[in-house]
């Protein structure tokens, strides 16, 4: 992603409010790393329901990342509930679930632009 667009030209906002979101990064490492150039979004949301992020690439595209948060009763005594993410998808472009060496990598999507 960095080679194609430049990290300084990317912004992320919360889909429901348009509030800027800054907890993301472009993974940079060895050119041989399979995840080099991937975008990582780090968030915690404990509001059940459908949510989204808008990823704006300045002068290029807007990608809408959608997901659902569930609220499930936890079996652990130290926390009452867990909030798993389900339904992770890209709404406005084709996409695939990322596979590495033939194995699915959970919660990683490849956008087809």
Describe it for me?
This protein starts with a helix and ends with a strand. The relative contact order is 0.17. It has one helix and eleven strands; from the N terminus they run αβββββββββββ. Strands 2-1-5-6-9 form a five-stranded antiparallel sheet, with no helix packed on it. It has a two-stranded antiparallel sheet with strand order 3-4. Strand 10 (94-100) and strand 11 form a beta hairpin. Helices cover 4% and strands 50% of the residues. The radius of gyration is 16 Å and the shape is globular. The protein is mainly beta and 113 residues long. The protein has one helix at residues 2-5, and strands spanning 10-14, 20-21, 24-26, 39-41, 49-57, 62-69, 72-73, 81-82, 85-90, 94-100, 103-112.
Quick synopsis:
With 113 residues, the chain is mainly beta. The protein contains one helix and eleven strands.
Secondary-structure topology with pairs:
Layout: H1 2-5, E1 10-14, E2 20-21, E3 24-26, E4 39-41, E5 49-57, E6 62-69, E7 72-73, E8 81-82, E9 85-90, E10 94-100, E11 103-112
Antiparallel strand pairs: 1-2, 1-5, 3-4, 5-6, 6-9, 7-8, 10-11
Low-confidence stretches: none
Report the average pLDDT across residues: 84
* N→C terminal distance: 11 Å
Strand neighbour order, sheet with most strands: 2-1-5-6-9
Question: Helical percent range?
Answer: under 10%
How many helices in DSSP terms? 1
What would you call the structural class?
A: mainly beta
């Amino acid at each position: 992603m960095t080679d194609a667009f430049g990290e300084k030209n990317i912004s992320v906002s919360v889909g429901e409010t348009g509030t800027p979101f800054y907890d993301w990064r472009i993974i940079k490492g060895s050119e041989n790393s399979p995840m080099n150039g991937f975008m990582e979004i780090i968030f915690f949301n404990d509001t059940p329901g459908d949510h989204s992020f808008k990823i704006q690439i300045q002068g290029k595209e807007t990608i809408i990342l959608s997901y659902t948060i569930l609220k499930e009763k936890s079996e652990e005594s130290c926390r009452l509930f867990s909030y798993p993410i389900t339904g992770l998808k890209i709404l406005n472009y084709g996409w695939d679930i990322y596979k590495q060496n033939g194995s699915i990598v959970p919660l990683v999507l490849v956008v087809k632009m």
